[in-house]
Design goal:
This protein has 14 helices and 10 strands. It is an alpha/beta fold. The protein folds into 2 domains: 198 residues, Alpha-Beta Complex (2-enoyl-CoA Hydratase, Chain A, domain 1); 84 residues, no CATH class. Strands 1-2-3-5-7-10 form a 6-stranded mixed beta sheet, sandwiched between helices. Strands 4-6-8-9 form a 4-stranded mixed beta sheet. Helix 7 packs antiparallel against helix 8 and helix 11 packs antiparallel against helix 12. The longest helix has 20 residues. It binds coenzyme A. The site of coenzyme A (COA) has 16 residues, from helix 2, strand 6 and helix 6.
Amino acid sequence: MLKKKYSCVKVDQQKDGITWVTFNRPEKRNAMSPTFHAEMMEIMTLLETDSDTKLVILTGEGVSYSAGQDLKEYFRETDGKPEVKAKASADSRWRSEKLWMYSKPTISMVNGFCIGGAFTHCICADFSVASDDAIFCLSEVNWGILPGGMVSKMVTDLFRQRDAMFYACTGRTFTGKEAANMGMVNYSVPKKNLRKETLKLAKELLEKNPNVLRATKHAIRATQDMSWRAAADYLNAKGAEIKIRDAARGHDAYAEGIRQFIDEKAYRPVFSPYVGAADGKTTEKGGKPRASAARKKKTPAKKKK
Ligand code: COA
């Protein structure tokens, strides 16, 4: 449990393992200053190994998710101060390297403005849900820089080429609904449902085996730029990693998942995870037997001749 209070970020840890990390500079539309980045780097590092946190949701206080880098504090005030600039830049990697391969699931919940450098953590979170009316913008072209810090690369990987070029070069805004159509976020919902829908996704993820989820999300990330052969080896190794991590909690996801489906007929993998996937605590018999188990019981045994 994190006890420390931060000046630019609020951390709210719920009992169910969901931790809300809320950017808290609403008067500056949650623009990211060097202090903000230093706090976020510390928070995300601590939460990654904090046993009370199973999943992290990132969002913004007020009308904005994040207005990108703080033009005054991150850019102008660090000019001519290479060490300060380098520190701010290193701390800002919580949004990219750290989030990209984070060991716990992350969701960005885009509640309003998502501008420039904010694209990085919106995209690098594993999942993203936006309000229909959120406003996205690559504003860099309008104030005199290119979308750096890997933003150009990320939108090129994610968007259709035409959309990437269009929005980067015009700086036109697009809504949460349009962001969903372009694949920038998973889906958008009316603002009044944003929290509820984000929590629904978070709770669904928390029902899964965390070791399987972690290996799966790393596999989706890491294989993107691997050769076929390297990806095959990586995926084999990730499968073995699940076994090792599960063994450490006295569990075997693979054997349990098959046993509960084939022998106990306790669940259907198409509709839900096996019983005990989340905490590794399985009962002798899985859950409520599924219909085919009940049918089997009803079939009278054949009489011996
Ligand atoms: N950097 C520094 N300060 C910022 C900021 C940013 N990226 N975004 C907003 N702010 C500050 C404003 O300067 C203003 O501060 P002030 O009260 O001291 O004057 C305050 O936040 C509120 O901004 P304002 O423009 O009055 O709010 P708005 O709701 O009318 O508009 C935006 C919101 C996000 C559309 C507008 O602030 C904007 O265009 N911001 C720039 C975003 C940007 O280009 N970011 C890219 C960085 S890579």
